[in-house]
Amino acid sequence: MTKAAQKGKTPVRMRSGKYVGDVYIPQPNGSKPQRKTKGGFNTAAEARAWERQILDEAAKGVDVLTAEKMTVSQLFERYIQLKTETGKAPGTIKTLYNALHRIEPYLGHYTLAKLTAPPIDDLRKLLLKEVAPSTAHLYLVCLRGALNWAVKQGVLSVSVANRSDLPSVKKKAIDLPEHSVMREIIAQLSDRKLHHGVLAYTLAHTGMRRGEALRCRWEDFHQTPEGWTLRVRGSKSDSSSRTITIDDELMAVINQLRDRQLVGSGLVFVDREGVPVDAKTFQVAVQQVSQRLGIRVWPHLFRHYHVSSCIEAGMSMHDISLRVGHANLGITFNIYAHRRVNADRDTSARASAIMRGEVARGNTESGAVVTSLVTSAP
What we know:
single chain, 3-stranded antiparallel sheet, hpI Integrase, Chain A
């Protein structure tokens, strides 16, 4: 029982309208009970449930998270366990383990209460000597994630990792193949397996991530008086879920899969027997076709290709960010800023031509780029 419960009081409600759980954990050696609080609960019932959970765990001998006795290594292991239980991708779990193995020799022995920003800064400098800047950046992001999780659990009041700067990573400009080359890649994928060709065609026309496309179901497509829409099930977060518009040509291409499916599973991208397309198999197929053509192409490149074509067509960066499901507009600018400069230069030239009377208003060819990414259906 909490002291609040013993006195018949409800959990404290803050000015924000949220409730705070407050629990005293009895110590086995008879010493002073340990107090543990956590805020952010929407109702008093949620706060009480959390209090009961903490007391039940203490009664069962479960080691309750405390900043004074938990080390960075122990926190990281619990964080990885949580991510595993919530179904995170194996690649994400592997990255977290790699981060733990790199960070553990330097920070693993620190308790959370004694961890400060300077040791994390020293770790950043050491990682930059041992691994590439992008890898060092990734490992420190993993550390931030673990410490921020500790804050959410009420173990820490603030994450000291947020006070340390992440290594800057200079993004390389992405060289995109010409439209004719992309059409040839999709055509060759279709010749081998139609569902691979249609998947590539869809990625190029929508900018979806590969995982998002593989989760598409027939019920996600809706026809309105203005045209077709597609509800995209976000693969990174709930914020990446969105509804986008697609044209009749793309819908006709996708319907080829429906016409040839012998077994219906509800999913769009399956073979004739209803077996879902395997992400790794599709990646290998794309790599084999690109190697035959003497270029480097990978599945995510279709997404870049779509965004770049949207920029060429004059679509605003804000609209592009919403269409492809970026978490914020800054991501779109950081990745595609160099292509935006070229698009602005072209737009300026067209605007000058219009003002000089060399081109009639509305008679620009750029607007046809998005709808003609691939001129022939696979």
